[in-house]
Amino acid sequence: MIIIGTKDNFDVEVLQSDVPVLVDFNATWCPPCQALHPILEEMAENADGYKIVAVDIDDEEELAEKYEVSSIPCLVAFKDGEETDREIGLKPKSKLLKMVGK
């Protein structure tokens, strides 16, 4: 299951997570974001030792600004509360798994 990230749960779900987290900054009007969604859904269903959090930049402008998201989809990997990797655009599942250490 993909966790919906908000400013209210971001600290707990991402920064305080005891497993690596891949955050998908996206928007409903973005075709590449929509193309990426099934890949992330599949990853989330089979997540072993990581989790996926989706942040809609239109609903969560504050988070998008804080993490300097200027292009979407923007995929940011976190481990132990720190950003470890960042990719912009539609990426293959193999790349996304590498971002979370798989």
Keywords:
single chain, 102 residues, alpha/beta, Glutaredoxin, 5-stranded mixed beta sheet, 4 helices, 5 strands, 26% strand
Structural overview:
The protein is α/β, with parallel strands linked by helices and 102 residues long. The protein has a single domain, classed as Glutaredoxin (3-Layer(aba) Sandwich). The chain is built from 4 helices and 5 strands, in the order E-H-E-H-E-H-E-E-H. It has helices spanning 10-15, 31-45, 61-66, 93-99, and strands spanning 3-4, 21-26, 51-56, 74-79, 82-88. A 5-stranded mixed sheet has the order 1-3-2-4-5. A hairpin with a 2-residue loop joins strand 4 (74-79) and strand 5 (82-88). The longest helix is centred in the middle third of the chain and has 15 residues, at 31-45. The relative contact order is 0.25.
Can you give me a brief rundown of this structure?
The chain is of the alpha/beta class. It has helices spanning 10-15, 31-45, 61-66, 93-99, and strands at 3-4, 21-26, 51-56, 74-79, 82-88.
Mean pLDDT over the residues: 97
Poorly predicted parts: none
Number-wise, the strands total 5
What is the subunit arrangement here?
Answer: single chain
Name the CATH homologous superfamily.
Glutaredoxin
CATH architecture: 3-Layer(aba) Sandwich
Whole-number count of domains: 1
- Strand proportion, as a percent range, falls in 25-35%
In the sheet with the most strands, the strands line up as 1-3-2-4-5
What structural class results from the helix and strand content? alpha/beta
Radius of gyration: 12 Å
CATH topology: Glutaredoxin
Output the helix-strand order. Answer: EHEHEHEEH
**So what's the overall shape?**
globular
- Helicity level: 25-40%
Give the C-level CATH assignment. Alpha Beta
Q: Termini, distance in Å?
A: 18 Å
| Helix count, DSSP H or I runs of 4 or more residues | 4
Largest sheet: number of strands, sense, barrel closure: 5 strands, mixed
